[in-house]
Amino acid sequence: MTIMLRAVTPSFAAAVDGIDLSRPIDADSVRTLWDAINQYAVLVFHDQRLTDTQLRDFAAQFGPLEIGRGALQGGKRRLSLPQIGDISNLDEEHRIRALDDRRRLDSLGNRLWHTDASYMPVPVVLGILHAVTVPPASALGGGETEFADMRAAYDALPDKMKSEIDGLVVEHDIFWSRGQIGFTEFPPGERAKYPPSPQRLVRRHPGSQRKTLYLSAHGSHVVGRPVADGRLLLWDLTAHATQRQFVYSHQWRVGDVLIWDNRCTMHRGRPHEELQARDLRRATTLDTGSTLEQAA
């Protein structure tokens, strides 16, 4: 097996050829992909056809897998494997969700720039997303996913700003991010399950050893500062980090698989035709400890 990389930019996002993700891969291939993740942060694989079991088994070679908030809510699910997140506009019977469907409205928070599960005490590492059904292009957009390179964004900050923010801690809260789009209808008891979690604002990526901003729509405020001041700082940093020179926009086609490193990227989904099916499946690997325990 010869894995080939084609860089989108010199240091951010690369297309990967020469590998069939539906088949078992050896330890050398896993190390090669980790090296590519550490360099590029986002990897793109085309023309892959994976069952949910194959997606789960591939992802598990990169770490223990998360069981996400949707799967933990209980009740009937469209997808049988709890380790596979349902990133779709389809309900449990494979019908397109109504525009006022509660789960659809909750999922619209993914259109904000965010880092997956940063509201958890121990956040996640890799997101691995597989496109099963992609809606046709429309005036609303094609459901692209955009990624921001938080390492390059940190590097581009003035030295005085780096010194100002390097030691800061931010409280992350799923209910803050959903509240920004007006969604507040959570199941009873869910707020108690997901209390806010503190995270470093600046992290050192363990693979590349580069410093990186750790921002997310879940980031509510800066610990130890007036809430208003902290939020304005986070909004300014987010505006800086999502300038076009730091962003890769992926236009999905059926069979695409994307891997991204949540420790050094942000991402957001873009609008698409809601009356057409969109079906993506995601596996996510867990980190081993809080960002507060990791070297800055």
Mean pLDDT: 95
The total domain count is 1
Strand content: 15-25%
N/C terminus separation: 37 Å
Spatial extent as radius of gyration: 18 Å
CATH topology: Double-stranded beta-helix
CATH superfamily: Clavaminate synthase-like
Order of adjacent strands in the largest pleated sheet: 1-2-3-13-5-15-4
Per DSSP, the total helix count is: 9
The helix/strand class is alpha+beta
Helical percent range? 10-25%
Which of globular, elongated, flat, extended, rod-shaped describes the shape? Answer: globular
Q: What's the order of the H and E elements?
A: EEHEHHEHEEHHEHHEEEEHEEEE
Low-pLDDT parts are none
CATH architecture: 4-Layer Sandwich
Strand elements, count? 15
State the name of the first-level CATH class: Alpha Beta
Main beta sheet strand tally, sense and closure:
7 strands, mixed
Tags for this entry?
7-stranded mixed sheet; 296 residues; single chain; Double-stranded beta-helix; 3-stranded antiparallel sheet; globular; alpha+beta; 9 helices; 15 strands
General description of the model:
With 296 residues, the chain is of the alpha+beta class. It has one domain (4-293): Double-stranded beta-helix, CATH 3.60.130. The chain has nine helices and 15 strands. It has helices at residues 27-40, 52-60, 69-72, 102-107, 150-155, 159-165, 174-179, 190-193, 227-241; strands at 4-7, 14-17, 42-45, 85-88, 124-133, 145-149, 169-172, 197-200, 202-204, 211-213, 219-222, 247-250, 257-261, 265-269, 279-286. The chain has a seven-stranded mixed beta sheet with strand order 1-2-3-13-5-15-4, with helices on one face. A three-stranded antiparallel beta sheet has the order 12-6-14. β1 (4-7) and β2 form a beta hairpin. The protein is globular, with a radius of gyration of 18 Å. It starts with a strand and ends in a 10-residue tail after the last strand. The model has no long low-confidence stretch (mean pLDDT 95).
